[in-house]
Amino acid sequence: MPRPDGWLLAHVPGWNTATVRRFLSMLGEVPVFHFGDLDPNGVRIYRHLREHCPSLRWFVPELWRNHLDRALRREWPDTLSLRGAPQLVRELAAQGLWLEQEPLTFEPGLEEALGLALRGPALGS
């Protein structure tokens, strides 16, 4: 995944959030983005981390629509609230699709999208 100058990227698999929560608590006042799977667990992990880091922003750029052909056909639970979720996440849920983040890390426009996210409004608030 490209790293814009001055950025720190930390990859933590799945629900291994204890270390992430501790790390986030030590960062202070810097922008922090969640870049996870666009599936029910991705939603749950984002919300779990946001409980510990209220300034956490959900990174779901529109350019990921270019990868819908890679989406998996899977159901989303009716009980999962998508209130405040980015539009693409809500659309995937409505269509019964999951999009994993690993292939998205190779998107050519990703570095530019990260820069735009830094300057743009917080998502997932």
Element pattern in H and E: HEHEEHEH
Biggest pleated sheet: 2 strands, parallel
Tertiary shape? globular
Could you tell me the number of beta strands? 4
- C-alpha termini separation: 25 Å
Q: Which residues form runs of ≥5 with pLDDT under 50?
A: none
Proportion of helical residues:
25-40%
The DSSP helix count reads 4
Structural class: mainly alpha
Number of domains: 1
Mean pLDDT comes to: 84
Radius of gyration (Å): 14 Å
Q: Beta fraction of the residues?
A: 5-15%
Strand order of the largest sheet: 1-2
Short description:
The chain has 125 residues and is mainly alpha-helical. It has helices at 17-27, 40-52, 87-95, 110-119, and strands at residues 33-34, 57-58, 72-73, 97-98.
Give a structural overview.
This protein has 4 helices and 4 strands. It has one domain (17-119). Helix content is 34%, strand content 6%. The protein is globular, with a radius of gyration of 14 Å. It has 125 residues and is mostly helical. The two termini are 25 Å apart. It has helices at residues 17-27, 40-52, 87-95, 110-119; strands spanning 33-34, 57-58, 72-73, 97-98. The strands form 2 sheets. It has a two-stranded parallel ribbon with strand order 1-2. The chain has a two-stranded antiparallel ribbon with strand order 3-4.
Please name the defining characteristics of this protein:
125 residues; mainly alpha; two-stranded parallel ribbon; two-stranded antiparallel ribbon; 4 helices; globular
